[in-house]
Amino acid sequence: MAGAGLNDLAARVAAGERAALARAITLVESRRADHRAEASALIQALLDRTGKAIRVGITGVPGVGKSTLIDALGMRLVAAGHRVAVLAIDPSSTRTGGAILGDKTRMTRLSAERNAFIRPSPSAGSLGGVAAKTREAMLIVEAAGFDIVIVETVGVGQSELAVAEMVDTFVALMLPGAGDELQGIKKGLLERADIIAVNKADGDALHPARRAAAELLSAVKILASEDPPRVLTLSAATGDRLDDLWQAVLDHRARLAADGRLATRRREQGVVWMRDMIRDGLDAYLAKHAGAARAEAEAAVREGTLAPSAAATDILGRLP
Ligand code: GDP
To answer: Which residue out of 66, 68, 70 has the highest number of ligand 1 atoms within 8 Å of its CB and is therefore the one to mutate?
Structure first.
């Protein structure tokens, strides 16, 4: 795409044209070197229009109710005059080709809304690469005038921490039923979450959900953090206490903005983003220029005939 084409695309994204938005995100997700250069130029052209959205991350195990929650919450926000974008990070879709989050069929009401935009996880590359592309997609939807961006991820592996690194407020969605389940909750997640919400607090699960919330509250108190996460219960299915959740998001963000932590957090996130992109770029370079040697080295390490450190030194030695 020539410069004029890029300027035209940037203008159409800024005007909020849906087709341009989809095209811009496809460009950002591409791994082709010429597309990477164009994507960088596009983001640079749109930079002034970015950064104004409320950025919220939502994590939770499959089945906890993420899509039900985002569908219901998104509908309320759209009804209140907001424009809501939903982006997903699911690195497992790279390997399995399945379990793609943010799929339109999962948020049936919201996906039909003109003021909502739902994008499944990019499905190529390392977690760092997927995260970097999602950050760029976030800037694009902000430039297109979406004032709320929800980034969704499955609460398994490192992807939830990657999401925590790119949002203002990070929500961990939990299932009712505590005790043994609580043991399985990673301390890291409790430390990173700004809000812990126990979903499915309805019907027979109402009491277990409240008990789970009480136990989670004791668990976060032990962390003795200066700004411990807010713990609440809700029902995505009935809509009960959804307003509480959104108010907790706004309260948290207001606290961050008031003492300057919002700006600090976003700047630190910029550094993490840069490191991710460097790592991803190095990985892409090695795949292109030393792919065969790396595959051989991996095989030798797997067989035990080559030490991992020697293999890494050899491969890194191939960088110019
Ligand atoms: P996800 O995998 O985290 O996106 O979870 P889903 O949103 O697909 O929900 C998984 C299942 O839980 C579905 O059958 C939902 O209908 C159900 N579910 C989601 N939220 C609630 C809730 O608040 N209460 C009840 N009772 N069921 C819910």
So the answer is: 68
**Cβ-count burial of 198 within 10 angstroms (0-12 exposed, 13-18 middle, 19+ buried)?**
buried
pTM, rounded to two decimals: 0.88
Q: Which of 3.90.1860.10, 3.90.226.10, 2.20.28.90, 3.40.50.300 is the CATH number of 51-257?
A: 3.40.50.300
pLDDT tens for each residue of 19-46: 999 999 999 988 788 888 899 999 999 9
- Secondary structure (3-state) at 75: helix
- Alpha carbons 202 and 209: distance in angstroms, whole number: 8
Please, where in the chain does CATH 3.40.50.300 lie?
51-257
With a cut of 70, which residues of the chain have pLDDT below it?
1-2, 91-105, 123-125, 156-157, 178-186, 224
Instruction: Work out which ligand 1 atom sits closest to the CA atom of 68.
Output: 7
